[in-house]
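Minutes, project check-in

Agenda point 3 was the complex the collaborators sent over. CS summarized: two entities, 521 residues total, and the question is how they sit relative to each other. Sequences were read into the notes so everyone works from the same version.
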Amino acid sequence: MKRIQITMVLLIASIFTAGIHAEPARSSSADAKRNPLSGAKLWTENCGNCHNLRNPAGYSDAQWDVAVLHMRIRANLTAEESRAILDFLKAAN
Amino acid sequence: MKPLAMGLGLTALVGAAYLPAANAQNDGEYVSREEYEKLKRDFERMKAMLEQMEKRLASQPETGASQEEVATVRKELKQVKKEAAEAKKQAKAAMPGIRKFLLTGYGFAGFSSSDLNDSSFNVGFNPIFLWKLNDQIFFEGEAEFELEDGETNVSLEFAQLSYLFNDYLTFGAGKFLNPTNYFIERLHPAWINKLPDQPLSISDANRIQAKAVLGAQVRGGIPLRIIGLERGRLGYAVYVANGPEMNDDGSLDFKNYGGFNSSKTVGGRIGFVPLPGFEVGYSFEVGRARDPYSSSKLDFTTHVIDANYVHIYRAIRGRIDLRAQWAWRNMDNSTGLGFDNEVSGGYGQIAYRPSLAQLKWIMDLEGVFRFDRQNQPNRSSFYDENRYTIGMNYYFNPTTLFKFAYEFDDRQGAKDNDTLLFQIATGF
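CS then shared the predicted structure for the full assembly.
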């Protein structure tokens, strides 16, 4: 049992390491530096972290208002992240 | 326009001046002094209005427009007014009002065949109702319809009213998904879960944590910029909920919706998101379970760690999705059980989707592997179990997929139960 626990801890640690290791490629993005709160970028990075991205045209502005608030609460998104995502979705639908 | 306006003005003036006199003649009587004075005042007033109108018309520039052109413009103006009124009517009909509503959710149908159970089809339908009453008040509720034992069972998955105090703190009360169980809160819907079933530690008979709890919580997301970091986020959730009851076999019954245990469970999770697509979290739960063998309560503490990483690598032309969650629970000994009631378990999962491939049908494929482990108390009626699941998915669209999976089961002290699973799921 101890061995399994150690294996799982190592697995989680390896995911952490993979995440740290992959960052330099992303942080070099000029776009990210120029506009860290780009709605489109935040949409793919946060919403796409759990599920495939829905077509922005699938919902009206009013419906995105509701959906984004729902996900802000569920995924503990920051208020400014959710506002930027909402602005993007309203512009793209 | 000028001749027409003048004509109308004159007609009105003459009409106004002439009509009372005609009435008087019809009566066959002379007008009185008072009536004369009134008519005189009316006349003077109408005369002043006419002079005013003439001055206004004189001050307007000559357009040189013909009668036909004026008529055409008026006709077009009338049409524009009509269309504007219609557009306004349509826009109003489409406006949701202040209270905004969204019906979303998911449904699935599947088939399973295992060594120890009869093969069977299964189906489920989970509508989710969301209301945004205003910028601060939000309600969410999910119903679950499932076929079980020849009947349709309906249950309330969650129903929570939230109030957003500010950008960093939201209060919620009701029945809500356990915020310390990442898989349940974020990944369990059938169109999101990459395999047809859930990990052992999440759905096993002696599961470690509750899927949903009845109580209240505070939660939110804090940008790490406020402590000087360039990016990142800290998510948190703390809840208090009805405590569980221990069953005769040592497992916990978390469905305390009637208050059979007055002790409350307190739990919380901190999720650290230092980079996009990467989150690591730690959760805890402490509480007191009712002991069926005595009048006492049994203290328990649960710890959970989870890690999640999603990234597109151009080198392998696709997306890697890594998930891991491990939980362990310590609990006071019950005199009636005769064993240390400690459980632990979790899963690790990797999925790869060649999302940057050239061919669309290859882009829509996804391979999945999951390892499950559940450690049960020694000498209990439960058994330790390892499970290895391989799966292949095909996405018809971003929220609709077909899943195929095969589970290689390895139970210690019990017969293995290898299982073949199919499922089609959609999120709407």
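Noted in discussion: Helices of chain A lie at 2-27, 30-34, 39-46, 61-74, 79-92.
Follow-up: revisit at the next meeting once the mutant set is ready.
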